[in-house]
Amino acid sequence: MSDQSAARTRRRRLALVGGVALVVLGADQITKSFAVSHLSHHEVHIIGPIALRLEYNSGVAFSIGTSLTGPIIVVAIVLVLAVAWFARRVPTTLSALGVGLILGGAVGNLADRLFRGNNGAVVDFIYTKYWPTFNVADSSVVCGCVLVAWSFLKAGSPRQARDAQVPNLSSSDAGAPSDAPALDLSPEGDRTAE
Questions:
Q1: Which residues are catalytic?
Q2: Cβ neighbours of residue 44 closer than 8 Å, sequence gap 6 or more
Q3: How far is CA 80 from CA 84, 111, 133, in A?
Q4: pTM beyond cutoff 0.85
Q5: What confidence tens digit (pLDDT) does each residue in 22-58 have?
Q6: How many CA atoms lie within 13 A of 154 on its CB side?
Q7: What's the CA gap between 190 and 194, in Å, rounded?
Q8: What angle do CA 42, 128, 135 make, to 5 degrees?
Q9: How many domains does the chain have?
Q10: What CA–CA distance (Å, rounded) separates 55 from 73?
Q11: CA neighbor of 17 nearest in space, from 108, 136, 98, 107
Q12: Does residue 131 fall inside a structural domain?
């Protein structure tokens, strides 16, 4: 792949990350605003165990750390910056989609903590009997993590990918015919017979 082609692919993947993140952020903030304005006095049953119910979570996943709002905000900012930095070099389109979902969800929940005026709490509104109440941002982060993990599993480890690209010249089967002598690169191999 030429340098221009690689740069173009990187730019497309970065644009995908940014576009997906913006869509997630928009959907997250719109649905949270709807929840705050329409669910403050009652819940809406959807189907089976699923309902829309307004809740505020000042902790992290599963409401852990509800008294640690300040440190949670600092950690969230650091994580958003780390994901944004990683997004510069996503290796595949699938991982770019996943990173966009993660980034959009992380920024959506961080925006709640910084700008909604709920003492650093995140608006949650999707309720099930069997799982803590969550929101669009939470769903996006989870789906994004699954996509990134899947893309890395599909691609194999970075070492496997590197080893597949670089032939092993120290073995006799690295392109030499089977009846040809193996190339000996050891210090003793360049001595002439005495």
A1: 124, 138
A2: 38, 51, 52, 53
A3: 6, 11, 22
A4: no
A5: 999 999 999 999 999 999 999 999 999 999 999 999 8
A6: 11
A7: 12
A8: 80
A9: 1
A10: 19
A11: 98
A12: yes
